[in-house]
Amino acid sequence: MAASSAERRVRDERSMAMSFEGKRLVIVGGGAGIARQIASDASAAGAEVIRAGRNPAALAGRGVRTAFADLGEESSLKALAHEVGEMDFVVSLAAAPANGPVATLERDAVRRAFDAKVTGPLMLAKHFAPRFRDGGAMVLFSGVAAWRPAPERTVMATTNGAVAFLAEALAVELAPIRVNAISPGIVDSGAWDRLGEAKAEFFRRTAEAIPAGRVGRPADVSAATLLLLANPFVTGSVLHVDGGGRLG
């Protein structure tokens, strides 16, 4: 007896949920909650997870390997690719904000911002592309600032916008390797803890201003990231995980 459409859909969903079994995922950058959540969720789904950054000791986690990588130093990315060998997925989350009025921006800070978001991920693609197994995919991290520019956030808006175009260009050049981007909004990832007591009020005002009515959680972004890695028919796209923040 042929399976019903509902049965086929459940079977397909189960197949996608198990698609990380035996896969190797490299996560570069992102020391806050989002990277940890992606590593944890991917590991729970069966993936072998390697987290890489400038301070590997700070990236350690249960069932997670660590390695050194600096997106501002191409030699370290070449070494990382050699160390990792064949793999299936790469996620780049690094950021080095260069916020402030244009009149006070320092060139080195701007360069570091582009290294983290644009130039570094491009070099990751250069050195990792030959090592992807069949069905491989990259996810780059953009951000809502590209669609909601604000004073003193010119560099942030520009680098995040560049990520969206980089994902499209790499998706074409590296095909059949899939390349997509995630654009998170305001997420309670730990990055906003620096606001201290003002954090709660900032989150309250943000929640009131966006359609979703709340700020994001690391789990929201992790689920979207794993979806882009697992879905074989999505490439060259930006997935907005911002609660509609870019529309407010």
Features:
248 residues; alpha/beta; 7 helices; 42% helix; 17% strand
Could you characterize the architecture of this molecule?
By secondary structure, the protein is of the alpha/beta class. Helix 4 links the parallel strand 4 and strand 5. The longest helix is centred in the middle third of the chain and has 22 residues. The radius of gyration is 18 Å and the shape is globular.
Give a brief description.
This protein has helices at 5-17, 33-44, 74-84, 107-128, 154-173, 198-209, 218-230; strands at residues 24-28, 48-53, 64-68, 87-92, 132-141, 178-184, 238-241. The chain is of the alpha/beta class and 248 residues long.
Q: Helix coverage percent of residues?
A: 40-55%
Overall mean pLDDT score? 92
Radius of gyration: 18 Å
The backbone outline, from C-alpha atoms, is: globular
Count up the helices.
7
In terms of structural class, how would the helical and strand content be classed? alpha/beta
Intertermini distance: 50 Å
Q: Which SSEs are present, and which pair or pack?
A:
Elements: H1 5-17, E1 24-28, H2 33-44, E2 48-53, E3 64-68, H3 74-84, E4 87-92, H4 107-128, E5 132-141, H5 154-173, E6 178-184, H6 198-209, H7 218-230, E7 238-241
Parallel strand pairs: 1-2, 1-4, 2-3, 4-5, 5-6, 6-7
Helix pairs in contact: 2-7, 3-4, 4-5
